[in-house]
Records
---
Amino acid sequence: MRGLTTAELLDIWERGLCQEPAARALSLLAAAYPEMSPRHLAALSIGQRDARLVALREALFGSDVEALVPCPQCGERLELNFSTADLLATPELEPETEVTLSVAGYHLRLRTPNSQDLLEAGNQSDLAQSRRQILRRCLLSVNRGDAPAELANLSAEIGEAVAQKLAEIDPLANIQMNISCSVCKHAWQAVFDIVSFFWTELEAWAGRMLQEVHALASAYGWSEQEILALSPMRRQVYLEMLGA
Ligand SMILES: [Zn+2]
């Protein structure tokens, strides 16, 4: 993984304004892992993708993670503090992991979902339909007894078993956090979505960066390119001289 310059990161943020989350994740990874082809990146399992996003987030914004989560019971906004290492506590998978699953008399061969699956399913307006499409794309073969079979419709039982198996084999794709409310004592599990979390941070960062550019350009007449090429430390020192 390589570090990203301020200008590169701003470009990614700007391009991402009209992108789906799955495409935003890929453009962050494409910049940080130039040695990997776009096709290879899109074929990483979601857990592998998320492990890389967590590593990139750590490189850019540090290892402390602070998230605000509303309690579903009393509405209190709870502040959660953890580290990027806590998110990566489960082992990463080898690429293209395949597993078999027997359910309702069928014998299924499955692979883990990847970014390509999310991108193709992202065009569906219906969330349940997207989810079914992703599961279907991850079904490599279906047998009933010894003979190949067709699964015209995924029954709820099969869909549930497939989703559960995929979550098991790619645990980083589904990071669950145990949360308990300090006010009403309600306890629940929430999924930590690194893509949306990282993107929200990136948006706030981009807003601050553009403000800094504005302040320095107004005061010194430097171009955006010149200001972004300064180290964060020097930018900060100039901003302090301006009393910003
Ligand atoms: Zn509560």
---
Amino acid sequence: MPKEIIIPEPNQSLKFIDVHCHLPFQRPKNDQLPSDKEQYLNFFKMGGQYLITSTIDIQTLNITLDFMKKYNKNFGFTCGWAPQTVTYTPKDKYNAEWKIWMNFIQENSERYLGIGEIGLDFHHARSLEKRTKQVEVLRQIFELTKDLDKSYILHVRNAAEHEFDRAHPKHRFNKRDGVNKEILNILKEYKIEPQRVMWHCFSGPEDYGSILSNQGFILSVPSSAYGFNRWRRVTKSTPLESLVTETDSYYQHPYKRGPINIPSNVRYSIAAIAYSHNVNQKLVSEKTIENAIRFFNLKIE
Ligand SMILES: [Zn+2]
């Protein structure tokens, strides 16, 4: 029987940055989490230096802009059009909101820190038609924004084995790294330098942990890496210089299943990296803060 892995808890005195969460958010039914305001205040009380939230569509953009009227100190957002938005938005609604988004992103580049999350998700898009649509929209986004001099935050999810598109079994999108490869090709085509691109909640495959960092990409480690070996393993060989930390809250709790996470749990990402890289948590905290400041060009007050 394999021994149970015990990873030390995060130190109480750590400083940290959460580069990707969803706060404020549309509350699910029977939501048990503290209010948006409480989560925001708690983050800084616990040692947070900067908090970055990510919008995924027009609804989340609007609630974020509203929240920021009151709470904006050391808080910023990345403006996204998530692949799930592409796949799940009803057609009539989609075209109107896409236009609003395109307009916002071009006219307000001083208001957001980066573009994302954007990307491809072949877990949520299983037919070739839906996958092709996501690719098409991703290209449009790069075409529209490549000269804005903004960083990109990628959501990348390869198809798992049981999610293969059975109607097109030999298609390259079915490969274990089909999405990674497609995205790398598109980035090359639009001449987006890797230094401008962060892979949010990086999930592998494992060999890409060093392939991507060697090319200059930044990889973000979720707080769930603390409790789930699979998440920890994929960045084990990524140098600290290429890592930042996130919660993706309210999704991805450090060690429980379900959407019950909060931004101050990003301390668990630090504990996970310290464990996988066999270095102390303070060093990981310093490095990941430095990397996040550099990547997003943050001004901490
Ligand atoms: Zn997210």
